[in-house]
Each structure stands twice: as C-alpha cells, then as structure tokens.
Amino acid sequence: MDSTKVEIVNRSFDQLVKKLIENTADRPSIWDTIIPLLIGAGLALLTQFSIECWKSRRERKKEKQNLISKGWAKTYLISQILKDISMYKVHKQYYLRASILANETTEKEDSFKKHYEKGQEQRLAELRLDDNIAEYFQLVTEYTILTGNTDHFKSYFQSIFNYVHPKSSKFQQCNSEDELVKELNNEEERLNNKYEEFRSIFDTIQSEMI
What we know:
Blueprint: H1 3-26, H2 30-101, H3 105-147, H4 154-162, H5 177-194, H6 196-207
Helix pairs in contact: 2-3, 2-5, 2-6
C-alpha cells in the first residue's frame, strides 16, 4: 500500500475517534437528569410529610384540650348532682322524722308526703349521676385512646365503681321540731363533706389529663 494512502486512512480514523469522544463528552448522562428530579421529589415528599405530621399533632392537641375541657364541665356537673343527692337524702329523713313528731294528722300526712317526694327526687338525681358518670368514663376513655395510654385511669374507674355512698342520719336523736330544724343543716353539711372523697377522684383524673 502507498504510504500516502496509509497516512490518509490513519489520519481519518484519528479524526473519527476524536469526534466520537467529543460527542460522548458533550452528551449529558441520563443520571444527570434523574438525580436532580429524585432529589426534588424527595424534598417535596419530606416537606409534605412534615406538614402532615405537624397538622396531625396540632389536631391531636386540639382534641385532647377539647376532651379535657368537657371533662372539667362534666366533673362540675357531677359535683352539683352529688350536692342535690345529699340534700334529698337529708330532707327525706328529715320529713320522715317530722311526720313521726307531728301532733296533728294533717301535719303528719303533709310531712310524710314530702318524705315520699324527696325519695323520688333522690332516685331521679341518682339516675342523673349514673348517666353523667358513664358519659365521663367515655370522655376519659377517648382521651386514653388518643394518648395511647389506655390503662392509666383503670384504678380510678374501679374506685368509682366500688364507692359506697354515705347515708343520711334518720334524726332519731331529735325529739322536737326545734331540734330537728337545728340538725337539718348540720346533717346536710356532714353528708357533703363525706362526698368530698368521691369528688376528689374526678379531680385527680382531671389533673392527670395533660
């Protein structure tokens, strides 16, 4: 082969290789496109996840505060119902004793009628108490599920279940209307103080709902 032809062929091959190398270097890699897209998508997902977590925590906090607020309202209502029950218990026994001490038949009948009415009112108040305690248990249970601590208040629930309600005096030591009137307020105050132990269970539960 002519040396001139060999030189021309070699020179042409070198130029082709050089061209291919240049084209390869100039052509962007697919990863140069994909990696920024993946990073962008990842950042977008992370941002969205962070926002959703923040919203979830905010909603959970709001729901907790709502349950705590309702719990305090229900605790106050239970406390008032207990005062009503104390009053009805005492007045029920008061009028029974008054019917025994009364001299006139009309007074006896009137006092016994009031004794019966206070007994009816007591039973209605006790039903209201049971309903409100059940609703309170529901509130607290929802709170424990929300916070993931379902066993925390079980001992308090058990104390409420097992609580023995105090009874009113029958005023048998009173032998006159004056003595009976004097002891009425004392007995109602005594019974309310007895119920403080029961009320305190609800206050303790509320203080631990944080």
